[in-house]
Write a sequence for this structure.
């Protein structure tokens, strides 16, 4: 048996549900007959079939809301990839099966309002279509599928955090109620029309993503065993961590079964010793129940306000855990949650009833996007080396079917977060499918307001016009670092132009944006309310206007790359006009700073960063502004997220030494036992927030100094930063292979070895002078005095 996922070429989305464009549209959407229109359900669809000889065939599959596919009792697919109703995802698989009898099953979950906030829906349904010999025996609506409603599943809204989904309750006692149901076609196969009428319901669109990682793991150690109610304000005592208590349960992680006597209750604290996203899995036999709960950290206080050192156990409290509830019968049953959970710690509340409860398996099915992480960087600075795995894990934990802000609290894809995660992806992997998927999803979100939504997909849409503007920079990043098709670029440029036109509605008589709709979120400094700069909500903010200038300039760059001079000039003219007014209204000559607000009562690093990145100030004035940025101690400081843009400014002004100094924030996280970067400096809500992984990008792009110098990374700029006795080496994924680099600075002599793909050339820049980089290997030995002296340059292809 061989199964391979592949992607169908996307067709014209504007013909969706009007013309048949995909084989899957020739099948019917089905569900069990008698659904009441609102009830949560889990339905198992089964199809037995027999092949007279070995066959290779293709299937296309989707469901609303989630499916799990099994072939001959082996799970092989989860989906569909999250999207919206107008671009509902389907996946395609090429399957080779031997002669004989086979069983294809789909377990389909529909949670409705109990689903995570990022999970949209139309109604419950399942669709599968085959090509070739299997078409007649597998297509839903035609083949003889069977359906069983699984009564053991029910759902209960989580009081701790409904945003990531309800508590899944699996009660195997109710399995006896399961019986075959009639099947109805809830949406017939699509029939093409020449009159342009669009059919209601799911508009199917192929997902270009690979399958997510799905690996059974049982990492870490059991750290505490207690009979106290750890969920209800009882702290963990030293006696709960005694090795004698723990030894038995530790064996369970190594597949040694544990049996709990009848009428006994235990609480088990399992430290995964790293951050994980995974489906909770446990095998039970006997009578009783297990609450399988997750937390990111334990707390120093019973109210769940102070986390303290994440490694400490004793005298700590469990607060507001999330998870699922499994109820056992005497029959062996393998339990797995309907959706994945996340965190570092698992708390098991185990309660046996009239007979002993035997546990034969305890594990998690780890899930995340399958990044290959072929980008490598190593420094002689041990602090940088120590941070890299921690940043990488945060990036991985926030990469799934979409980028997400945080795995534990929201699991939503935000524009500002995703831009930084996408940049980490470019330096860590040659795979850019998730970045392109994110750009597409945000583009599709414009149907709500005409602006890019703040987070998407989502059943609770939210608008942030500051984040909408960052989508333009995200598009530019993708076009610079990778090589999407010209047809895709053309489509996105049209979307970009339409969205930017909408901002004209909010320009006041002075040509400044005023009282933008939605949440004008920028960052989380303590001085601001809800992350909004002063006067941004109802008035005029320099920071919001600088976001606008940034987007207009980026749009002009994209238009210049693809040859539309008129549109480029239009965007530049608008950016220039707004910039003139921003300087007039917000520049404070005495402080050499851009104020946040019209009254010039507030000043922030954020405003200076955007002013310097957009070059709205004359060169000498900009230098004064930069000096004020790095020396004025009274500015509102960038939090973890917006420090990305501060690092961009420091790189631009050749002060990468300050980037190194500012890594102290991340060093402090490590001292607190962090295994992934926090959302913000303490007190932090989230312990895993990938926008704080952005130094990973800067290690490659600002310290090693490797960036695209042309669209598609067809030219490269290399501008390394090293201190005396520094060494930096590694390799950066490139559309044509890898850029390999090795830099060292010893006794004021810089040695640089740079290997470029055979299709790429560029510029090497150091100490104010530039040299050509040729295809293949480039070797420099440079004296590090005021004027760089190239003692020797060797280029060999």
């Amino acid at each position: 048996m061989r199964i391979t996922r592949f992607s169908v070429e996307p067709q014209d989305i504007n013909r969706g549900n009007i013309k048949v464009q995909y084989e899957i549209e020739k099948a019917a959407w089905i569900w069990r007959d008698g659904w009441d229109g609102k009830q949560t359900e889990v339905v198992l669809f089964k199809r037995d079939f027999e092949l007279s000889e070995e066959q290779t065939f293709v299937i296309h599959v989707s469901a609303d809301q989630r499916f799990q596919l099994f072939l001959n009792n082996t799970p092989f697919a989860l989906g569909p990839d999250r999207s919206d109703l107008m671009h509902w995802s389907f996946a395609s698989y090429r399957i080779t099966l031997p002669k004989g009898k086979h069983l294809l099953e789909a377990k389909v979950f529909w949670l409705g309002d109990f689903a995570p906030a990022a999970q949209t829906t139309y109604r419950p349904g399942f669709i599968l279509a085959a090509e070739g010999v299997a078409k007649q025996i597998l297509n839903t609506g035609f083949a003889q599928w069977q359906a069983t409603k699984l009564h053991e599943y029910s759902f209960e809204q989580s009081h701790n955090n409904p945003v990531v989904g309800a508590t899944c309750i699996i009660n195997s006692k109710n399995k006896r109620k399961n019986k075959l149901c009639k099947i109805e076609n809830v949406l017939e196969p699509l029939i093409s029309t020449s009159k342009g009428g669009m059919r209601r319901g799911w508009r199917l669109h192929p997902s270009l993503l690979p399958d997510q990682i799905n690996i059974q793991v049982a990492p870490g150690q059991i750290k505490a065993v207690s009979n106290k109610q750890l969920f209800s304000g009882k702290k963990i005592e030293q006696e709960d961590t005694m090795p004698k208590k723990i030894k038995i349960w530790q064996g369970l992680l190594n597949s040694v079964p544990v049996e709990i006597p009848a009428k006994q209750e235990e609480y088990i604290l399992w430290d995964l010793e790293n951050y994980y996203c995974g489906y909770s899995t446990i095998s039970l036999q006997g009578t009783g129940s297990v609450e399988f709960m997750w937390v990111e950290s334990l707390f120093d206080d019973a109210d769940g306000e102070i986390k303290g050192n994440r490694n400490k156990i004793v005298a700590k409290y469990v607060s507001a855990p999330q998870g699922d509830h499994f109820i056992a019968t005497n029959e062996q049953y393998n339990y797995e949650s309907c959706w994945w959970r996340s965190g570092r710690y698992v708390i098991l509340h185990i309660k046996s009833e009239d007979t002993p409860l035997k546990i034969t398996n305890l594990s998690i099915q780890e899930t995340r996007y399958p990044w290959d992480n072929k980008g490598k960087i190593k420094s002689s600075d041990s602090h940088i080396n120590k941070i890299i795995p921690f940043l990488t894990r945060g990036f991985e934990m926030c990469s799934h079917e979409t980028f997400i802000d945080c795995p534990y609290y929201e699991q939503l894809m935000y524009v500002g977060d995703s831009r930084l995660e996408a940049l980490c992806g470019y330096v860590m992997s040659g795979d850019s499918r998730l970045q392109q998927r994110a750009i597409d999803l945000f583009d599709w979100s414009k149907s709500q307001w005409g602006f890019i939504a703040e987070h998407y997909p989502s059943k609770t849409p939210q608008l942030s016009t500051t984040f909408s503007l960052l989508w333009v920079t995200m598009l530019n990043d993708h076009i610079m670092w990778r090589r999407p098709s010209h047809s895709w670029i053309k489509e996105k440029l049209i979307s970009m132009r339409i969205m930017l036109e909408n901002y004209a509605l909010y320009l006041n008589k002075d040509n400044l944006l005023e009282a933008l709709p939605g949440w004008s979120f920028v960052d989380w400094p303590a001085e601001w309310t809800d992350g909004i700069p002063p006067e941004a909500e109802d008035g005029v903010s320099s920071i919001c206007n600088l976001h606008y200038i940034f987007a207009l300039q980026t749009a002009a760059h994209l238009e210049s790359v693809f040859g539309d001079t008129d549109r480029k000039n239009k965007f530049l003219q608008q950016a220039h006009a707004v910039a003139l007014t921003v300087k007039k209204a917000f520049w404070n000559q005495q402080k050499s700073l851009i104020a946040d607000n019209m009254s010039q009562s507030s000043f922030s690093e954020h405003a200076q960063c955007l002013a310097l990145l957009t070059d709205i100030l004359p060169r000498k004035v900009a230098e004064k502004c930069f000096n004020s940025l790095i020396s004025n101690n009274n500015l509102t400081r960038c939090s973890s997220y917006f420090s990305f843009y501060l690092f961009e400014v420091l790189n631009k002004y050749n002060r990468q030494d300050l980037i190194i100094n500012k890594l102290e924030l991340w060093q402090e996280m490590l001292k607190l036992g962090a295994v992934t970067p926090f959302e913000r400096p303490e007190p932090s809500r989230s312990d895993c927030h990938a926008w704080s992984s952005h130094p990973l990008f800067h290690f490659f792009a600002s310290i090693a100094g490797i960036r695209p110098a042309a669209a598609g990374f067809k030219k490269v700029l290399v501008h390394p930063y090293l201190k005396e006795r520094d060494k930096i080496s590694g390799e950066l994924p490139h559309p044509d292979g890898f850029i390999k680099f090795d830099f060292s600075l010893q006794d004021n002599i810089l040695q640089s070895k740079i290997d470029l793909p055979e299709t790429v050339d560029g510029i090497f820049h150091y100490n104010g002078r530039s040299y050509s980089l040729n295809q293949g290997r480039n070797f420099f030995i440079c004296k590090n005095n005021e004027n760089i002296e190239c003692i020797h340059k060797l280029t060999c292809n």
